[in-house]
Fold:
Amino acid sequence: MNIDTLLYDHRLFIDGHYENLAGLFCNIAGQKTSLTKERFLLSSWYEGYLYNLLLGIRINQRQSFVGKRVDKAPKWSNNYLKQYQYIIAILLSKKEILNELKIIDYQSVSLKDRDIKSITDDLKKICDEYSNGGLLYLSRLYEKDNTVFNEYDSLTRIMANVIKDNS
Structure:
């Protein structure tokens, strides 16, 4: 089976615990709204998910779902598939992720005991945890300063600070 097809079949979720927070900087209503309001920094939850996923990876923070897992889309968007693949490549460059997936050496990659679908499903779970880790980080920032998302470049500044602090 084609890897793109497997990734495309990944559902898009948001942790219900963070849904209100995400709504402060991201249009999480999706196609239910006819126009994305100008106040949103990100136009869709795909963008929000990817941003939080990168943020979670950057700070190396993972979190399982705290609240109810809210379904946002039944399939991954073609518009964001390349970005998703890029992030998966970042994850697969981490030895601890390869260990967790049990694909650390040639024998384990030969897929005798596991198929590629189960590996990509496990990768999606890891992605969800890193995205939730990014949301946790943003929620802590918001608790300290509830104006953190008020500027058009808020998310850029947050990521730049994280990169600077973790370099």
User: Anything to note?
Assistant: Confidence is low (pLDDT under 50) at residues 33-37. Strands lie at 12-15, 69-73. Residues 103 and 111 are 9 Å apart (CA to CA). The helical segments are 3-8, 19-22, 45-59, 81-92, 95-101, 106-109, 116-144, 154-165.
